[in-house]
Amino acid sequence: MRIRVNGESREVDQASSLLDLLRQIGLEARNLAIEHNGEFVEDDRLGEVTLNEGDTLEIVRFVGGG
Amino acid sequence: MKPPVQFPPEIGTEGPRADAEGLPLRVNERPHRVAPGATLFQLRDRLKPDADVVILNGFPLAEDRPLAAGDEVVLIRRGEVPSPEELESLMVARHGPGVHARVKAARVGIAGCGGLGSAVAIALARTGVGHLLLVDFDVVEPSNLNRQQFFIDQIGLPKVDALRDNLLRMNPYVRTETRNLRLTARNIPETFAGCHVIAECFDDPTMKRDLTVAVRRDLPTIPLVTVSGIAGYGPADSIRVRRIFRNVWLVGDTETAAAPGRGLLAPRVAVAAGQQANVVLRLLLGEEGEGSGRRESDPVEEG
């Protein structure tokens, strides 16, 4: 199924969780801020959120430096 | 370029009323009237014949041209120390119309006064942003001086105090407010409530994340410009701006972390701070789309 991640279309397996997707794209689940269909996702719910066809994700990982 | 002030159409056109009153314009921020048909250089010759720089509506001109109603004229003589009343108007003479009044009314929060925060604050102070809230818990250290806008004789001073002193030497018309404290999810809302825009300028990635989450959740009407991925000496143009949430803009390449073997260097930090300050300015001017911080009371400019 296709979803949109940071504005770009992406193919993911059916019934993937958000945590599965993070593993798939190689993002460590630290210092993340994620919106799933416009709703903020708390860190402890990453494994519970199931992705559906057409979902929109905004995933930001903060790295140090300033 | 559109003048910031609109006059009734009968003033400034040919006719008995214009003859009687002259064309209304501003010279060095003061109201002035000239006869219809008067030119820029005639005005200079009458008011300040030794002026070296003649600026019309934010643009320096070497050629004469006719004046129109609503024009903003600034006459400057090199080396002359202007009076305090004149200084601020001369400092903003290159802003172009409409910018000064809007930024002067704005209050911007700077969360962290290191490499990003010191440079963002300087850019905004030079732009004439009226009120800057500077927040940091740290003191100036020698290792900061490779990229942060402080001086050797400021080592050991709280960063907020050192930065305030530096800003006031650049623009004494900026009101600064300093908070020497460590920001947490708990004190972020009360610290930044009342700001028109917030700039996230921390070094630590968890603090960056926590501020972004707190502002998104607790201050949803205040735009935040946050930063991630500015270390090293990779290409400057990989530092981009993206609107990530409704009230959050992200600056950076989103990947390049400061880490052992990959430091933070003045050029790329300056690029990121410049991007960040420019997004803050665009938000204050209502140029970043819906929800971008333009206030109802602000004057509206088409185009």
Secondary structure topology:
The complex is a heterodimer of chains A (66) and B (303).
Chain A: E1 2-5, E2 8-11, H1 18-24, E3 32-36, E4 39-41, E5 56-61
Parallel strand pairs in A: 1-5
Antiparallel strand pairs in A: 1-2, 3-4, 3-5
Chain B: H1 16-21, E1 23-27, E2 30-34, H2 40-47, E3 53-56, E4 59-60, E5 72-76, H3 84-91, H4 99-104, E6 107-111, H5 115-126, E7 131-135, H6 159-170, E8 175-179, H7 188-192, E9 197-200, H8 205-218, E10 224-227, E11 240-245, E12 248-252, H9 266-284
Parallel strand pairs in B: 1-5, 6-7, 6-9, 7-8, 9-10, 10-12
Antiparallel strand pairs in B: 1-2, 3-4, 3-5, 11-12
Helix pairs in contact in B: 5-6, 5-9
Write a short abstract of this structure.
Chain A is mainly beta and 66 residues long. Chain A has one helix at 18-24; strands at 2-5, 8-11, 32-36, 39-41, 56-61.
Task: Describe this entry's structure for a reader.
The complex is a heterodimer of chains A (66) and B (303). Chain A is mostly beta strands and 66 residues long. Chain A has one domain (2-61): Beta-grasp domain (Ubiquitin-like (UB roll)), CATH 3.10.20. Chain A is built from 1 helix and 5 strands. Chain A has one helix spanning 18-24; strands at 2-5, 8-11, 32-36, 39-41, 56-61. A 5-stranded mixed β-sheet of chain A has the order 2-1-5-3-4, with no helix packed on it. In chain A, strand 3 (32-36) and strand 4 (39-41) form a beta hairpin. Chain A is globular, with a radius of gyration of 11 Å. By secondary structure, chain B is of the alpha/beta class. Helices cover 30% and strands 18% of the residues of chain B. Chain B contains 9 helices and 12 strands. Chain B has helices at residues 16-21, 40-47, 84-91, 99-104, 115-126, 159-170, 188-192, 205-218, 266-284; strands at residues 23-27, 30-34, 53-56, 59-60, 72-76, 107-111, 131-135, 175-179, 197-200, 224-227, 240-245, 248-252. In chain B, helix 5 (115-126) packs parallel to helix 6 and helix 5 packs across helix 9. Chain B is elongated and about 65 Å long. Mean pLDDT of chain B is 89; it is low at 1-19 and 293-303. Chains A and B meet through strand 3 and strand 5 of A and helix 5, helix 8 and strand 11 of B.
